[in-house]
């Protein structure tokens, strides 16, 4: 179809790609690609401030390299995944990976220094495009300062993209904040279906490209076609149990404590106490702890697991096959709120979502939030399908009770599995783009490919 006529991946030659996709995106003047052609290369400054953003950024970089008819040079900030795609990070991603409001205060000076370093590096790099991925606190300050410096110096201004729309829609008065972004953000790449309309209603150019976690499907199910409503990942449960000497009658429970050190130190203590309680009801309990690819987190979990109350298997970050094998072997999961809730949907693994923060951060969320849920599946379905234990209610006794109910109630688990199919369907890239971009199973047109296409052929002033 359309995509195959304009790009021959095997020969790596562009066949009218620019003109066709520009027409699809309603672009009328110079695109980013056309601007980069004058310099013989495309310079992209890309910044991610956390582990989940590092994965998104790495996939976007791979898609940009695949789609661009020009050589691409990257600079910016990222983690191990982005480094595999050719990024030499200005500094370790952990230096700016801080969550919460009050938790940020002790790190403000260091982050200011890193922000200044990033701004200067971007100006020196002279990019055609600047892409920030999630981490809105750092990202928006960076884009705002860059735009001010470019205007001050009266030099050519690169296009500013932000990948993952800020969840201002979830906060009281939050949508009004979107209007202020238009002065330094040129385009938002949205990962939730309703966000494009919200952004556009507030004066921001935006495109819903699908949820990036869905790309796990195409990476792990290669060679297997899936229809839209069947998108799921089936790991090798038996192989995982055999390799880790897990008895056939054991109750396997996956724990996903988070990706930032602050949340892991807070949540893992609660999780450990929860497992101690669960052991009374499930004597053959085995926990699988998923470790984020963050060196501080890795070191911390290595120390804590020595005193873990039940047998534990550690799953290193950056290994999707191993992660989904472990999820397949698990009966339920206990997750810290975040992107992992979507991964549970792809694995069709019932779960409980937990969240604790600094008490002032929790107070702020309770006061400002206008939606009753914190996990994305519940938000999308507007229903408490996934049990949540939040703030003061997030105790080891509460979590143990929720997990026991889920482990013993087949109907509750089946309800979550059925809901997961609906969630995945909502998070898929929009059909109006897919039908023009690919002639293959729906999942093969990944969110990162759609995002890369929007970036490369975006109109420049």
From TrEMBL:
<protein>
    <recommendedName>
        <fullName>lipid-A-disaccharide synthase</fullName>
        <ecNumber>2.4.1.182</ecNumber>
    </recommendedName>
</protein>
<keyword id="KW-0441">Lipid A biosynthesis</keyword>
<keyword id="KW-0444">Lipid biosynthesis</keyword>
<dbReference type="GO" id="GO:0005543">
    <property type="term" value="F:phospholipid binding"/>
</dbReference>
<dbReference type="GO" id="GO:0016020">
    <property type="term" value="C:membrane"/>
</dbReference>
<dbReference type="GO" id="GO:0008915">
    <property type="term" value="F:lipid-A-disaccharide synthase activity"/>
</dbReference>
<dbReference type="Pfam" id="PF02684">
    <property type="entry name" value="LpxB"/>
</dbReference>
<keyword id="KW-0443">Lipid metabolism</keyword>
<keyword id="KW-0328">Glycosyltransferase</keyword>
<dbReference type="InterPro" id="IPR003835">
    <property type="entry name" value="Glyco_trans_19"/>
</dbReference>
<dbReference type="GO" id="GO:0009245">
    <property type="term" value="P:lipid A biosynthetic process"/>
</dbReference>
<keyword id="KW-0808">Transferase</keyword>
């Amino acid at each position: 179809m359309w995509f195959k006529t304009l790009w021959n991946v095997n020969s790596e030659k562009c066949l009218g790609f620019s003109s066709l996709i520009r027409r699809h995106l309603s672009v009328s003047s110079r695109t980013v690609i056309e601007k980069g052609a004058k310099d013989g290369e495309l310079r992209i400054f890309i910044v991610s401030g956390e582990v989940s953003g590092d994965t998104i950024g790495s996939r976007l970089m791979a898609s940009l390299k695949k789609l661009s008819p020009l050589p691409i040079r990257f600079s910016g900030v990222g983690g191990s995944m982005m480094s595999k795609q050719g990024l030499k990070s200005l500094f370790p991603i952990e230096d700016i990976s801080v969550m919460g409001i009050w938790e940020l205060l002790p790190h403000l000076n260091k982050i200011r220094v890193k922000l200044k370093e990033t701004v200067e590096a971007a100006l020196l790099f002279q990019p055609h495009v600047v892409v920030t991925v999630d981490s809105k606190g750092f990202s928006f300050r960076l884009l705002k300062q860059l735009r001010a410096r470019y205007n001050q110096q009266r030099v050519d201004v690169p296009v500013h993209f932000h990948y993952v729309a800020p969840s201002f829609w979830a906060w009281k008065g939050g949508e009004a904040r979107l209007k202020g972004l238009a002065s330094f953000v040129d385009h938002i790449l949205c990962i939730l279906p309703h966000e494009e309309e919200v952004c556009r209603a507030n004066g921001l150019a935006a495109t819903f490209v699908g949820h990036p976690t869905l790309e796990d499907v195409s990476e792990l199910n290669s060679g297997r076609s899936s229809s839209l409503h069947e998108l799921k990942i089936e790991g090798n449960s038996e192989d995982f149990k055999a390799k880790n000497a897990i008895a056939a009658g054991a109750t396997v429970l996956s724990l996903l404590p988070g990706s930032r050190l602050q949340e892991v130190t807070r949540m893992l203590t609660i999780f450990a106490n929860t497992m101690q309680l669960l052991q009374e009801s499930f004597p053959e309990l085995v926990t699988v702890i998923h470790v984020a690819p963050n060196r501080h987190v890795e070191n911390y979990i290595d120390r804590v697991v020595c005193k873990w109350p039940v047998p534990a298997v550690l799953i290193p970050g950056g290994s999707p096959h191993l992660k989904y094998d472990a999820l397949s072997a698990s009966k339920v999961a206990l997750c810290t709120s975040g992107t992992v809730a979507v991964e549970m949907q792809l694995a069709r693994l019932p779960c409980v979502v937990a969240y604790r923060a600094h008490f002032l951060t929790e107070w702020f969320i309770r006061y400002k939030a206008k939606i009753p849920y914190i996990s994305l599946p519940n938000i999308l379905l507007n229903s408490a399908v996934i049990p949540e234990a939040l703030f003061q209610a997030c105790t080891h006794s509460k979590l143990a009770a929720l997990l026991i109910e889920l482990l013993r109630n087949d109907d509750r688990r089946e309800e979550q599995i059925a809901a997961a199919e609906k969630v995945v369907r909502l998070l898929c890239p929009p059909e109006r783009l897919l039908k023009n971009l690919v002639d293959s199973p729906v999942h093969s047109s990944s969110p990162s490919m759609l995002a890369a296409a929007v970036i490369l052929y975006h109109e420049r002033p």
